[in-house]
Amino acid sequence: MRFEDVRKIKPNPNNPRFIRDNKFEQLVNSIRSFPQMLELRPIVVNENMEVLGGNMRLRACIEAGLTQVPIIDGSHLTPEQQKEFIIKDNLGFGEWDWEQLANEWDAMELQEWGLDLPIESDVNLETEPLKENTIKITFRTPEDVQKAENEIQELLDREYDGAYLSINL
Question: Which pTM was predicted?
Answer without folding.
Answer: 0.63
